[in-house]
Amino acid sequence: MQQQQPHPIPGPPPDPRAGIDEGMAGLENLDRVPLAEHVERFDAVHTQLTFALSSIDKV
Questions:
Q1: What is the pLDDT of residues 1-59, one digit of tens each?
Q2: Please, which contacts does 34-41 make with residues 24 or more away whose CB atoms are closer than 8 Å?
Q3: In angstroms, rounded to a whole number, what is the distance separating the alpha carbons of residues 42 and 24?
Q4: CB-based contacts of 47: which residues, under 8 Å, 6+ apart?
Q5: Structure pTM?
């Protein structure tokens, strides 16, 4: 007889807004950051905003 595996209890879904402030904080003092690092910072914010927007119906 096979033993049944317990079903994992899902935790609360991640808050899509949680990373937005952190991502936006990465744009602070952008004028003091080397130009080569701008793309990485904008990409991080874009990723956070995309996640938030794709999760908006679950908020």
A1: 566 666 667 666 667 677 778 778 889 999 999 999 999 999 988 988 888 888 777 55
A2: none
A3: 9
A4: 23
A5: 0.61
